[in-house]
Amino acid sequence: MADSIQTIQLPNGLTLLMQQMPWLESAAMSLLVPAGSQRDPEGLAGLAGFTAEMVQRGCGQYNSRQFVEQLDRLGAARSASVTNYHTRFSAAVPTNRLRETLALYRELVLAPLLPASQLEDSRMVAMQELLALEDDLAQKLIKVLRKRLYPDPYGRSTTGTMESVQAIQLENIQNHVKNFYVPDQAILSIAGKIDFNEVQNMVDELFGSWQGTVQQELTEHPPAEGHHHIEHDSNQTQIGIVFPSVPYSHPDYFLARSAIGVLSDGMSSRLFTEVREKRGLCYTVYAMCHTIKDYGCVLAYAGTTTERAQETLDVMLQEIRRLGEGIHDDELQRLKARIKTGLIMQQESSSSRSISMASDWHLLGRVRTLDELSTLLDEINSNSINDYLASNPPKQFKIVTLGQKALDTSLADGGVA
Q1: HSE (CB half, 13 Å, CA atoms) of 131?
Q2: Which of 80, 309, 325, 378 has the CB geometry, 3.0–4.6 Å to 237, for a possible disulfide?
Q3: Average pLDDT estimate for 180-195
């Protein structure tokens, strides 16, 4: 499998990642530019997302409608998203349409039209996303929770606020493209039924003249301390718990990930069993590892009624703390089966593989093969996880709640339930 992956650094700074998946008839590309929400200027939160919307409204010789028609003609299953670090454009096509697809996305990043006539339409899209977030109380909570753990600008949301979105002007978008839609720190990941030499020649021809470097230096500011309550008139209470963990690049990441998997992966996990099945306290409960380049955390969430919110929080904290006492072999074996199923499914998708390769490069500076991931998983055992948990028990909790009233968080600070 390692021989099926190649990495090439272009002179302009663009990293090209390629993996051959010859059993497929498709190829997928993911193009990541260093234009994430961490680059949003003061007072213009949401600019990265606004810009991602605008650049798709025509580029090169194609207006907005023609650009969409070209992608449809190629049969491209495409997506665009903004993270804290990157703006990502992805597309999967039949292999014989790859060059045309790459040529279109080359125009998107090098020659977007950014039509002034569609600025307000794009603003409306951004505002609708914010309004949808107001109705999605769980996501609203998670947005605040991340800001309580990661230093700014790494905890920033991609959506901004109504005020910041209203303040964005065309000149801000043009400057964002000029400063951050550049090959420096950009990643182009391609997976599927491809020939390495052909793809490299395509990319050299299409992207070799792309120029630009990221000039802006980021300044970190520590996150807010303590717990936080968001008052909201609702019969439901949203509960979020966050605590530090290791990032994906850390040697112990998969030990931490496996421990949290025992806590929360699947209907036989501890949180689901104790909080929902045995006690019937909530309708949704989970915990997950979250990572950015240099920081990692565990996010836990539950949605419940106002009356059962305090007990839900207390039981969640008890189960999270109990994880520090260790896990059992049978719990780990169920988790490994679930993760291996995910790895097998990833191997069958050029789209998921192109995205995961780009993520690996960003977080690790290299690409892990699926065989390597499988080996890492096989080597994990309950003793190694328990040793990790003994040295790194869950602690330093921060709690955010959203609902009618604040909850007693003393258990998170060492109190007794």
Answers
A1: 6
A2: 309
A3: 97
